[in-house]
Predict the structure of HTH-type transcriptional regulator.
Amino acid sequence: MKMTSMIETFVMHFGEMGSRWGFNRTVGQMYALLVITKEPISANQIAEALSISRGNVSMGLKELQSWQLIQLHHKPADRKDYFQTNGSIWDMANRVFEERRKREMDPTLSLLRDILLDTPANEQEQHAQNKLKEVHDLLEGITKWSSELQRLSPEKLDTLMKLGSGVGRVLDMKDKLLKRTNE
């Protein structure tokens, strides 16, 4: 499988982004290739396109399957496994966020909850606990907000994103109105 210059540019960049999203560069490249390929492709085709070993492809496919980002396909009279993305781009974004929440946010929130249950031994620990409560409350708020966003349909999410800075202006207006009524 030969990639065009445009496709190669996207695949390589997506690999770099994948490393920031929680999986390694090669896995990101593999996923990008699967995203932009119309038909399911085999592990050998992935290895050839990305110039990586078949073993590396196999490990990457397992990781993408564990994230539920790809699905396995079989073709009649062909013993090879073929792969393609599992769902839409919105589905992918939700899965990546959910996995990152499980791997990063949940353990941090759990640790913070445990620390906040402890009785501070001195003033320094009390100050630290107050700051940790702020961190906890922020992460808890982000988690709840993102869970609400994940429940929205792609169409509603798209509308919400298009509102963009308009939401900020509405909130500023609300603050000004509240300030006037309190004067």
In short: The longest strand covers residues 70-74. Residues 80 and 172 are 58 Å apart (CA to CA). The chain has a mean pLDDT of 91. Residues 89-156 form one domain.
